[in-house]
Amino acid sequence: MEIIMNKPSVKKNYLYNLFYQILTLVMPLITTPYVSRVLQVDGIGEYSFTLSVVSYFAMFGTLGLNTYGQLQVAGKKDDIIGTSTVFFEISILKAVLMAISSLVYTVYVLKTMQYKSMFIVMYLYLIYTALDITWFFQGIEEFKKIVLRNYVIKLAGVALIFLFVKSKGDLILYGIVLQGIGALGSISIWPYLLGRIRLVKNIRPFRHLKASFVYFIPSIAISVYTMLDKSMIGWLTNSAYQNGIYEQAHKVEQMVVVVVSSLSTVTLPRLVYLYKNNDRENISELMDSTLHFVLGLSIPMCVGLIGVSSRLIPVFLGDDFYECIPLLRVFSLLIVIVGMSNLSGKQILMAQGKQRQFNISVTAGAIFSFLFNFLLIPKLGALGAAVGSILSELLVLSIFLYFARDELKITTIFQIASKYIIASLVMLVAIEIVNINVSYDLLALILEVGCGVIVYGVMLIITRDKFAELAIHKVMDIRKKKQ
Question: Which of 147, 323, 428, 453 is the most exposed place for a label (fewest CB within 10 A)?
Fold first, then answer.
């Protein structure tokens, strides 16, 4: 067995992965205010609907191989021959499956009558999915170089949008730029494989087909309650407008969720390694730190986003998107729910190999998501889909917590969460005071965010939160070293 690396730092990998995840949202973050005003609600809705449809074909083409591959690589990360074998086998299998899925997608595109041009553009999304190998680097816990490469590519995408997307008639060009940049990003990561894999013999890619199918089941279920809402809005309301306001409200919420969810990506391979070696002490320490982190960030972000939504939407998206305000307030709850779902589902159940329990949870969520959407969308449109998302995600979290009850106690969660809730409510009062007394949207938004951060930080210091105290000590140590 050849050793290929030392143990990476979870903290450093979290920062690298957080940066990588943020980069995937930097382009929307910078361009969304501009694109919302140029392409308008209907244009955004058309793009959102077609992307949700092509995502199903991409999902069937990957067959759960990204998650499966990450876990397989994580278990063999000290063996370069083992990781190389896994890489080639999964990459070949994925290429075959994506080719078949692309052929089926072609039949769909030839038969569809609505948004045909945009559906053709979405072939770039299939290329991006087929060539994506971030699962390999996540498995070996290496993020730095792929982040730096993607930084350049994302900036290029931002520049192209501002240069060429000038009116609503440039919607197709917008799709080409956005999906083309994604495909280029996937291609750009491949050179970093040099030195990390070796040519190996006796490749048997199809031996992974049955094992990866276990991870395909939750990918179907997760897709149902993360993408089906957009598809059902289009199918049940036949309204690009409803899809447009839903897409933009959801996009704003996702920009916040990524800060919390990024941690699970880097801790999952580490926890797989620790569980494999039955290192209970380090598992307990890592889980305690993660629980404080998730709750300490997600709760104030949720409450804060609810508080600033009435100012954020007109400033960020424009006056045409005022109907996004109630949607964003509903979506804000997902910040806490998704954060805790990642902790209990991915970092406990999946890391322990309890895939059956994970599958039961997400399958139940998928079924109820369809039912909630079917009942609520015809009556409430986009708002009904948002409520349905909250209810189905909450159901999934509840089942996750039941299956993870030996590792994650409900009483512990509420005990830790209580002070973060109190601090966040005090923060919300400060935000509302600013909201009442300042009339100009942009100024109010800046003051609300600033006051919210300060008040929340002060509350953590008053309640002697251990992570706040640790951060203060580190800052003081840095200052002492500089002196």
Answer: 453
